[in-house]
Structure formats: C-alpha cells, structure tokens
C-alpha cells in the first residue's frame, strides 16, 4: 500500500482552512465574561467590557491616574465614588437591585459584575437571557443617571430607571430565541416582569426496534462512551445470532479520544472481533449515525483507514447501520464494564455475562422522547411493549 500524506487535524485526511484556524487559535476564553457576550446588544457589550476592565471615568479611576481631589459619591453624598460602590453598594441603588432580585426570585445580594451575572447561571435559558440583559442594562442606567446628576444636575430617580429597565427586558424577551422551563417559578418571574411566555416545544416521540439478523448472519451491536469530549473512552460489543441468542460480549478500554473517534473505534473493534471469530456474514449496528455514514460511504477516518482497507473484504456479506441508544442498550451496558479497563485492554465473555441484565427483544418497540431534536430521554419509556405505548400515545 502506498504511503499517503494526511492532514491529521480533520477526521478525513484533507486540509481545510477552518481546521488550521482551530489548531492555531486559543480555544479557551481568556476572560470570565466571554460567555456573557452572547445575546447582548452591541451597546451593552461595550458597557460590560468597560465595567469589567474598570475603565469607566469614576472618581477613584481619575485619582489613580494622578488627579487629586476629594471624592464623594454624587448619589448618596456619603462615601467616596468607586465602581463597586456606585453600581452595587450605594444606598440609592440598593433598593433597585433588591426590586430586580425579587422580580427574578434570586436570593443573595451581589457586590460586583461577576457575582451579579453569575446569579443567573442556574436559570432556564429564556430567564437567563432576561437576567443578563437586566443586570448589564441596570448598571448602564445607573451610570447614565449618575452622569445626569453630575453634569446636568438632574435628580436621581429610581422609578425612571425601573421603567426603562422593564422596557429593555421586554425588548430582550422579543429578541431571544431560547425557551423557558415549564415550571411555576419561571411563570411567576414572567408574570412579575410582564413579558411573554416562551414555552418549550412539545417533545416528539419516535420509536425503533431491534431487528433479528438474517439466517446465519451475526449481528454485532456496538456502542462507546467517553467521559468528556475528548475524554477517556470505553467500548462494548455484543454478538447475537439469527435466533437472537447471545454469542458473547467484548469490552475494551480506550485512551483519551473524542466521541466520534470512540464510535468509529467501536465499529472497528466489532469488525476485528468478527474476523477473529471467523464470522463471514456480519451486521454491525452502532449508535452513531455519523460514524456509520462515514463507513458506508467509504470515507473512514484516516486513523482507521489502513486497518479498514485490510479487513472489509474478508466478509462475504457486511452491512453497517445505526440505531438509537434506546434500541442498543445491551451494548451500552457492556461499555460500562469497559471503564475499569486501561487503554487498549479488553475482556471477552462467552454467552450472556451477569452484567448484561437486559437484552433487546425483537418483538418490543423502544421509544425515544426528543425535545427540539437535541435531547433525548429514555428511562421510564424504555422497553414498553407496543400495545401499552399506543395506549399512552
Ligand atoms: Zn453612594
């Protein structure tokens, strides 16, 4: 076989500018506020940047740059003016923050921007967007009011700030694409703020079956799991005959690889096992449709390509297909045993080992609940006979 040059930063071997950019750029954010930049108006982003860099023209900043004058908060006239005092600790702004915290049902009182934004981290996506916009815009409104007091001698008015802030929150509720959790707490917050509800899309329920292989064909269900992406991976393969009987189970530990690579490794492991056992008619069923698509279109990732080229012609019949984890749970159980194995260490079991508590039944329909096509839940739905599920539906 001829040597071939490969670009190792893509799963296929070809070079892309995007992959080169991903390699050379720093992927970790350098500042804590990077994650709060999403869904913000550019004006609010600039203000957040100024607060976080502490470059607002507050009196403490002027004094640090060599200006010498007595400092006094223009709002309360009691303490010296610093950014933290002006935005969070001043006696005139504390009631506004308390009102906002009550509206969002948040406990605790923040004393800086990081704390304020962090209070919303556990909220639903929709409420989180509203909270972030509210925090940043409230700080900006306080700053503008302070400037009006200093330069235009306008009296500080809490109610004006509240009205403007509610208008901004309403604007954000129209712009955001995220949905709320369908909980009473979220509904109470929405009712207090007077914004529209944004319910989660209704879940869609899809079904799948574990189908028996053809006569004398061996079906190998394979699965992988990783602890993180990339993370320590483990593989599990279960082999069954055309009658549904379990021939054996193989588990294997892998090093630190990404999820897609782990799925491809699981398929390769199933193929290797089939060759070792002398099975000629083989059906591989995996959980990853992307990995299966790569194998079926002969675009196997370059790490496995040499091995694949050497092995795939050894079968008289080979088909590779994908299914959901809900219809592939015995292989998933096998992967859990693989977590005790070190990298490339493997264990083979004849028949059904004790850790495989359930195997797929060809007469049972398995269900997956899909929300926004992103999340799937199993659990209570798993393995319901089709007649019962129809009653449910
Ligand atoms: Zn003050």
Automatic annotation (TrEMBL):
SUPFAM superfamilies: Ribonuclease H-like
Signal peptide feature range: none
Taxonomic superkingdom: Eukaryota
Gene3D superfamilies (alphabetical): Ribonuclease H-like superfamily/Ribonuclease H
Any matching Pfam family: zf-RVT
Residue ranges constituting the RNase H type-1 domain according to the UniProt record: 228-331
Segments forming a coiled coil: none
Gene Ontology molecular functions: nucleic acid binding; RNA-DNA hybrid ribonuclease activity
Domain Reverse transcriptase zinc-binding: 15-97
Protein name in the entry: Reverse transcriptase zinc-binding domain-containing protein
